[in-house]
Design goal:
Low-confidence stretches: none
Shape: elongated
Number of helices: 5
Radius of gyration: 21 Å
Largest sheet: none
Distance between the termini: 53 Å
Length: 120
């Protein structure tokens, strides 16, 4: 506990939850993977927002040297590139797997017909 009586929070514990979710992810259908990669930009935007909030907290309420706040701000700015890069993942996925997605959404001769292409 901190002196204020609140439990100390480690952001790395929250990040560990994301890592655990990714490590145990085992989709039954590739649409689940598509949903996961489509969520990547939002997940990283939340991480980025965390940096902004911490920088503001340090700047406005804590006895922190401005150089520290600036470094947190630099991390925030770098996350823009991460989010932008991840926004392209879903686009690339849909482009390179267009045939697979089409067969899933519009199976030839129904699902039973498509199952005959069992590659597993």
């Amino acid at each position: 506990m901190s002196e204020s009586g609140t439990a100390f929070v480690r952001l790395s514990d929250a990040a560990e939850v994301m890592l655990q979710a990714a490590s145990t992810f085992d989709p039954e259908h590739m649409a689940e993977f598509q949903h996961l990669i489509d969520d990547l930009p939002e997940a990283m935007t939340t991480v980025q927002e965390t940096l902004r909030v911490l920088a503001e907290l340090a700047d406005e309420k804590l006895p922190v040297n401005p150089a520290v706040t600036e470094e947190i701000g630099e991390g925030y700015r770098v996350m823009n590139r991460v989010v932008t890069a991840l926004e392209e993942v879903g686009t690339v996925y849909r482009r390179v797997h267009a045939d697979d997605i089409e067969r899933n959404e519009n199976p030839r001769n129904g699902i039973d017909g498509e199952r005959r292409w069992n590659v597993g």
